Give the backbone structure.
Amino acid sequence: MAQPFPRLYTLDEANRTLENLRPLVAVVMTARARLVEMQPSLAPVLEKLLGNGGSKLTAEMLDMFERLRSAVGAIEAMGVLVKDLETGLVDFPSERAGEVVFLCWRYDEPDVAHWHAIDAGFSGRQPL
């Protein structure tokens, strides 16, 4: 059976990756929060945009979407799965007892310290 993930991380590799991952997750969370904050003002801006008008808010919205897209793309290029944009939850594919599982990390955690079965999700998180 073909491996469904580009790579499997050991716990040490996942923790070493956090140095590069933390700033990307911070960008994702900040861009998402700003887009949510902008949401009430977006309907009239988008209507104006469709009428060939523009605004500072439109430019900022497009910038936030690009930041979000770029950061998520960089995270996924590492072989890490983005699970929750709001909390900065990501999963590292790994192997445990011969089975592919996810090492689970959230932005507010100092290290990767949890894992769960692929089909269990966050609610199935267990300490390592």
